[in-house]
Amino acid sequence: MSEAKTLLQMAGAKPSPAKLSDAVVVIIDAQNEYVSGKLPLAGVDAALARIADLLAAARAAGAPIIHVAQRGRPGGLFDPDGETFKFAAPAAPQAGEAVVEKPLPNAFAKTDLDAKLQATGRKTLVIAGFMTHMCVSATTRSALDHGYTVTVAADAAATRALPDPLGGADLPAENIHRTALAELADRFATVARVADIK
Questions:
Q1: Can you tell me the distance from the alpha carbon of 40 to that of 70, in angstroms, rounded to the nearest whole number?
Q2: Which of 38, 71, 117, 154 is the least crowded, having the fewest Cβ atoms under 10 Å away?
């Protein structure tokens, strides 16, 4: 049992997973760039399977779903004219599900995401997608500033190894993933597995 406590626990909060009956599901950057492109992620197939599970549960519950896509420059990462820009098949939107294209890691920045969320009348989000330390983290942090309560689906997210900025060995993807989740759980979100989000 951990002796460390999050800021939320110290404040007396008892985080629990969002209920799909109250939430909007936001899937961030579940695109082919992370599967077959230049940014393959550790555990991406398992995470996509959990995203598919989450989407199935959300659809069954009638929860609004918003798909976010990173839009890059032609010829670069997330080339809007290329296959890697497209959503990965397990996470593909269905008819009637909103799509937001973003230019920055934070899905609220320079997009109409907040307007789309406000139109649902819901203030609870379930966030999943890629990469845990980058766009999932940036969007979750910003969601707090916008007045939303967030649950991050831990097993429906993934990331990649990163170089140590201080010159040590590369930091493994699993360490980056777990650390990013721990940072979010400290103040910004409840972190839960998809099976616990119902």
A1: 15
A2: 38
What per-residue string of b and e applies to 41-68 under the rule 16 or more CB within 10 Å gives b?
Answer: bebbeebbebbbbbbebbeeeebbbbbb
What is the pairing mode between strands 124-130 and 149-158?
parallel
Residues identified as active-site = 29, 102, 135
Domain 16-196 coded CATH 3.40.50.850: yes
105, pLDDT greater than 80: yes
Tell me the CA distances in angstroms from 90 to 48, 54, 192, 196, one per residue in order.
6, 11, 20, 20
pLDDT tens, position by position, 38-51: 999 999 999 999 99
Tokens read off for 164? 């140590």
Distance separating alpha carbons of residues 97 and 41, to the nearest angstrom: 25
Check whether 53 has a pLDDT greater than 90.
yes
